[in-house]
């Protein structure tokens, strides 16, 4: 597809698109790419700042073979969702949190990031331009994938001279849709991240290394892989694309964000909701031993929101956990999705309404 | 630049290009990209094999925003050099070694790699197509950069459904040209790789994470950064883009390729040459203490070949090493570059002659 550039406002102003849905089988949504109409692209030279980007037709981008992303993995991604609320409003969930995480990542990878405001504005514009791809309420969400990549040409190992901030979207259902709970395998061969590395930022470089263990786990019938810390191999860290919590009595524990795990936005939100209903939520090292003694285990992440862990397999030991109606994860999942889908009032200020939004007025930038 | 595809043989058959040089200031070559005329591109679907690629004009490539490389850092690169020998022949150095290393990397990142023969053939074709960009004998080399990247679109973390094998080239001088020796800083904050990670393959994901420490070291006046092992922080591993050796008496030691450092092809070649002249070359853990007690330290890599280390700074301690005429590194540098530039006979079978090479005949595939 050619890169025909359109003024940023044009696709946003069609009154017709407002009421229509794209031709998607909403009941059958999984977590795979369905290309939509538009994407957002902005560029920035090293040492300068991002100026306003543009909404252009979704399609392949043109990139130097010698770019930082293709040669040295200089790239970050983000992932968030926009929901069609019960009342019809389209609402992204906490986009400013993704903006801030991208800034931290950009600092670690020596790139320039868009400002929080630019990021949130770009998310809004991209979602609005692809409005008809937001699933009907309760049928899924529009997954939003911002990228920040080194697109300038650079031969020696260094930061690229130009960066591109790009956002594309895809309607999605659930990440691990079918299962009642995850069956995790504790990884003994590979490690995801080490202290002094990039585990705490959403660098693309953290993901290709986990594909092999993920494939191996899936081919043995597991849903996903649970990584241990690289330093000691004694503590649990996180799953390939989500954080982990264990529950025992009134105490909910999750590994700390001390450099090797991603500070998940769902993790943060769920911790807050857990505290709201009287649980003691602790961020601290969690050993495999404790994991095996927990009553309940669950995962959090944008893709799956909150998902119970049914079993964990450690060497040849398989431990089963509480799932279903009695599980805390079921309760927390409901609390959060009720906010996300506009079923209960959002007292947290997490949902950003964009329907009435007019580009440039900034009046609805999130305050969360 | 548009992707106008040309038959692979056409640029190789112009008799004129044979005798001409490109319009380059050969005396001023550094290690920065000088775009040349052609690049090589081949594609392969997941589960299939690479078929023959094509030599096309050098220029930007078209890629899905949702590709494995842009989102999940699914990419490998290689780096090797072709020299214009004294007798005028153009000779890449050990390309089959890079082919094998790419295969190991592809396995780690769950990609399909070109066969050794395809890789070497593609290198030859790319070099021949860009013949006039190979610097005059003694003025530098043609740096060859093969990439293997996940170009298929993939939304969830997984291997991409399509891979692209691409080679571009650039004439280069030396990586750390000016200095008489490197001034290295031992890194205490960042780590490059961990056991169970991807440190031993040339994954793009190993490089963006080191840019920050490299920049910090350079801004303090150092040439490069020396990484310690992530597990204990006691042993030396390697520099951002090269391997390290220490010398004491008749013993030359270098960290082992046990999973966290790149098995350098220069490292392997220099180890062999060192043994040839009577040194005992040991591959084993080398502690910082030993480093500080060494008589001589040097680095090896495609970009700089062999380079003496003048100083190492560990915390606030600066240790000076032997450099210059008396140094083993000077001798080894001369031994290797004499082979590479065709000044002495290549008894090792390391240099691959490609001048008389006719694409498709395979009669000059390297046997090393
Ligand atoms: C490694 C990893 N951990 C955790 C998460 C969860 O983060 P969030 O809740 O912000 O989606 C993600 C991303 O989704 C991830 O990639
Ligand atoms: C991390 C690292 N170590 C070592 C080397 C040296 O390897 P080679 O001698 O094959 O160029 C390189 C690449 O050049 C590298 O990137």
From TrEMBL, chains A, B:
Co-factor requirement: pyridoxal 5'-phosphate
Enzyme superclass (EC): transferase
Domain of life: Eukaryota
An annotated GO BP: branched-chain amino acid biosynthetic process
N6-(pyridoxal phosphate)lysine PTM sites in chain numbering: 202
Record's catalysed reaction(s): L-valine + 2-oxoglutarate = 3-methyl-2-oxobutanoate + L-glutamate; L-leucine + 2-oxoglutarate = 4-methyl-2-oxopentanoate + L-glutamate; L-isoleucine + 2-oxoglutarate = (S)-3-methyl-2-oxopentanoate + L-glutamate
Alphabetical list of Pfam families matching this protein: Aminotran_4
Keywords: Amino-acid biosynthesis, Aminotransferase, Branched-chain amino acid biosynthesis, Pyridoxal phosphate, Transferase
Single Gene Ontology MF annotation: L-valine-2-oxoglutarate transaminase activity
InterPro entries named in the record: Aminotrans_IV, Aminotrans_IV_CS, Aminotransferase-like, B_amino_transII, BCAT-like_C, BCAT-like_N, BCAT_family
GO CC terms: cytoplasm
Keyword Transferase included in the entry's annotation: yes
UniProt-listed Enzyme Commission number(s): 2.6.1.42
Family, similarity comment: Belongs to the class-IV pyridoxal-phosphate-dependent aminotransferase family.
Cited PANTHER family: AMINO ACID AMINOTRANSFERASE, BRANCHED-CHAIN-AMINO-ACID AMINOTRANSFERASE 7-RELATED
Cross-referenced NCBIfam families: ilvE_II (TIGR01123), PRK13357.1 (NF009897)
Protein name stated in the entry: Branched-chain-amino-acid aminotransferase
Organism of origin: Eutrema salsugineum (Saltwater cress)
């Amino acid at each position: 597809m050619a890169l025909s550039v359109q003024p940023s406002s044009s696709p946003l102003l069609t009154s017709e698109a407002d009421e229509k849905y794209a031709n998607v089988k909403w009941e059958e949504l999984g977590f795979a790419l369905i290309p939509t109409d538009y994407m957002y692209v902005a560029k920035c030279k090293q040492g300068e700042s991002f100026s306003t980007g543009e909404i252009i037709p979704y399609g392949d981008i043109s990139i130097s073979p010698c770019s930082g992303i293709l040669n040295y993995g200089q790239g970050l991604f983000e992932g968030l969702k926009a929901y069609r609320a019960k009342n019809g409003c389209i609402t992204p969930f906490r986009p400013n949190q993704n903006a801030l995480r991208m800034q931290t990542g950009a600092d670690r990878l020596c790139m320039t990031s868009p400002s929080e405001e630019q990021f949130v504005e770009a998310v809004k514009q991209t979602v609005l331009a692809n409005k008809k791809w937001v699933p009907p309420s309760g049928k899924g969400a529009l997954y939003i994938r911002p990228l920040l990549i080194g697109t300038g040409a650079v031969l020696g190992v260094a930061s690229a001279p130009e960066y591109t901030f790009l956002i594309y979207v895809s309607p999605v259902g659930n990440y691990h849709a079918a299962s009642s709970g995850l069956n995790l395998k504790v990884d003994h061969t590979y490690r995801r991240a080490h202290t002094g590395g990039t585990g705490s930022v959403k660098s693309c470089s953290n993901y290709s290394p986990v594909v092999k263990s993920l494939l191996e786990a899936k081919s043995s019938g597991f849903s996903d892989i649970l990584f241990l810390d690289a330093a000691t191999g004694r503590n649990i860290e996180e799953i390939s694309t989500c954080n982990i919590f264990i529950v025992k009595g009134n105490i909910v524990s999750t590994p700390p964000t001390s450099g090797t795990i991603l500070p998940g936005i769902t993790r943060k939100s769920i911790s807050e909701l857990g505290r709201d209903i009287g649980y003691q939520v602790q961020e601290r090292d969690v050993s495999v031993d404790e994991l095996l003694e927990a009553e309940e285990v669950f995962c959090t992440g944008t893709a799956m929101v909150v998902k119970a862990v049914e079993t964990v397999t450690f060497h040849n030991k398989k431990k089963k956990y509480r799932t279903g109606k009695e599980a805390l994860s079921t309760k927390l999942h409901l609390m959060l999705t009720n906010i996300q889908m506009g079923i209960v009032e959002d007292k947290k200020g997490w949902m950003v309404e964009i329907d009435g939004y007019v580009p440039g007025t900034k009046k609805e930038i999130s305050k969360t």
